[in-house]
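so im writing up the methods section and need the L-aspartate dehydrogenase record in one place, dumping it here so i stop losing it
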Amino acid sequence: MSTSPATGPLTVGIGGFGAIGQKVAAALDSGSIEGLKLVAVSARDADKARANMAGFQTEVPVVSLGELADRADVVVECAPASVFAEVAVPAVERGRIFLPISVGALLRHDELVDRARRTGARIVVPTGALIGLDAVRAAAEGEISEVRLVTRKPPGGLAGAPYLVENNISVEGLNTAKKVFDGSARDGAAGFPANVNVAAALSLAGIGADATKLEIWADPQVTRNTHTITVEADSARFTMTIENVPTEENPKTGKITALSIIATLRRLGAPMTAGT
Ligand SMILES: NC(=O)C1=CN([C@@H]2O[C@H](COP(=O)(O)OP(=O)(O)OC[C@H]3O[C@@H](n4cnc5c(N)ncnc54)[C@H](OP(=O)(O)O)[C@@H]3O)[C@@H](O)[C@H]2O)C=CC1
Ligand SMILES: O=C([O-])CC(=O)C(=O)O
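--- predicted struct ---
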């Protein structure tokens, strides 16, 4: 049952119990996030999810993605992009705090932002596997002339992306880096729905999905997903790079992603926060 922040902890439901969801759930279960309490999770295979909760202090019910919004004040989405709407729409319609991590899918459902305005929901996009969105948001309060993201991934992490399949681009047997996409964050997020959520998050923090430039490289020299952002603004110029250690459970997903969600949740319940 959900409770208001004035009378008790904010209740949290987690949609998706894989590489990201399990780490976020474990942090909540450990009681280390002040003012927040795990109340439900969702997974495709409920028995597997219950087995993965065996070491938890408190087992919570495994429910459908749509039910999370009935049970929790805060709904965290960390499922495949293909089921994004199943968790996002009820969360926004019920006026919950909604944390999406399949951010590319949010670009394809931008009507949710308008709905949130009407229902009182808040959509809070974590930085995820990227870096520097605090500085991008601050710069966006002034004038930004350019935002560019260059993403380099091990070729295997990109294989099967719809853009590669549709354009007959092979990433097999590469000896040198190959640029496989050069365009807008919006087109990149559509063509690589499981690979460049970071580009979507960057565009939402800055100058939008059409103006944000994106290059994607299949690079046999990298073992980590590597993202470099460059921003040119009237307040500052900056370039930052992050090299993400892959999770064991899903090598496409960097370890820092779950930590970013945990840090975002911590802000919701904290008496003091630091950073923009
Ligand atoms: N914003 C960012 O920076 C980043 C975003 N991501 C994105 O985060 C998302 C999650 O990534 P990750 O945790 O690695 O993925 P995983 O594949 O490890 O986990 C996905 C989870 O979703 C569950 N799931 C699938 N279908 C359903 C359904 N119909 N109902 C309920 N649960 C379902 C799966 O259930 P089961 O376990 O039973 O199969 C699984 O637990 C992806 O979209 C990924 O692209 C990833 C990295 C960075
Ligand atoms: O770097 C990562 O861990 C994952 C990633 O690029 C994304 O999904 O945007």
